[in-house]
C-alpha cells in the first residue's frame, strides 16, 4: 500500500506575490527613469489594478516579504525528509531543487522591486 504524495504549490504563490511587487512598483519607476512615462500612463490606464497596488505598495511588499520568509522556513526547516523508496526519493529531491530555484528567483524579483520602489527614487531624483 503506497501513499500518494500530493505536490504543494507554495512556490507558485510566492512567485506570484513577488512578481506583483515587480509589476506594481519596480517596472513603472524603471520606465519613468528611462524616459518612458507614456508607457506607464498607457499601462496604468489599461490595467487599473496597478494603480491600487501602487497606492498600497507598503502592504504589497510586507505581505510578499512575509510569504517569502514563510517559504524560506518551509524549504530550510529542520526535519525535512524524503521517502525511502528510490523512485519517490528521486522525485522528492528533484521537486526540492525546483522549489529552491523558484524561491531564489522570487527573492531576486522581490529585491529588484524593493530597490526600485523604495530606494531608487532617492538615488536618481
Summary of the model, kept short:
By secondary structure, the chain is mainly alpha-helical. The chain has one domain (10-73, 86-124). The protein has helices at 10-33, 37-46, 49-55, 57-76, 86-124.
Report mean pLDDT, rounded to a whole number. 79
Total discrete domains: 1
Gap from first CA to last CA: 65 Å
- Rounded to an integer in angstroms, the radius of gyration calculated over CA atoms is 19 Å
What general outline do the C-alpha atoms trace?
elongated
SS elements, strand count: 0
- Largest beta sheet, briefly? none
Question: What is the H/E order?
Answer: HHHHH
Task: Write the SSE topology.
Elements: H1 10-33, H2 37-46, H3 49-55, H4 57-76, H5 86-124
Helix pairs in contact: 1-2, 1-3, 1-4, 1-5, 4-5
List keywords for this structure.
single chain; 125 residues; 5 helices
How would you portray this structure in words?
The longest helix has 39 residues, at 86-124. The chain contains five helices and no strands. It has helices at residues 10-33, 37-46, 49-55, 57-76, 86-124. It has one domain (10-73, 86-124). It is mostly helical. Helix 1 (10-33) crosses helix 4 (57-76) and helix 1 (10-33) packs parallel to helix 5.
Amino acid at each position: 500500500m503506497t501513499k500518494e504524495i500530493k505536490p504543494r504549490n507554495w512556490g507558485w504563490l510566492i512567485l506570484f506575490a513577488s512578481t506583483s511587487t515587480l509589476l506594481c512598483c519596480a517596472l513603472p519607476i524603471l520606465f519613468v527613469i528611462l524616459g518612458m512615462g507614456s508607457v506607464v500612463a498607457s499601462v496604468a490606464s489599461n490595467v487599473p489594478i496597478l494603480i491600487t497596488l501602487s497606492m498600497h505598495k507598503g502592504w504589497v511588499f510586507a505581505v510578499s516579504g512575509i510569504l517569502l520568509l514563510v517559504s524560506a522556513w518551509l524549504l530550510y526547516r529542520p526535519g525535512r525528509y524524503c521517502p525511502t523508496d528510490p523512485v519517490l526519493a528521486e522525485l522528492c529531491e528533484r521537486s526540492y531543487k525546483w522549489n529552491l530555484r523558484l524561491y531564489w528567483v522570487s527573492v531576486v524579483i522581490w529585491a529588484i522591486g524593493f530597490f526600485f520602489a523604495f530606494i531608487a527614487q532617492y538615488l536618481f531624483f
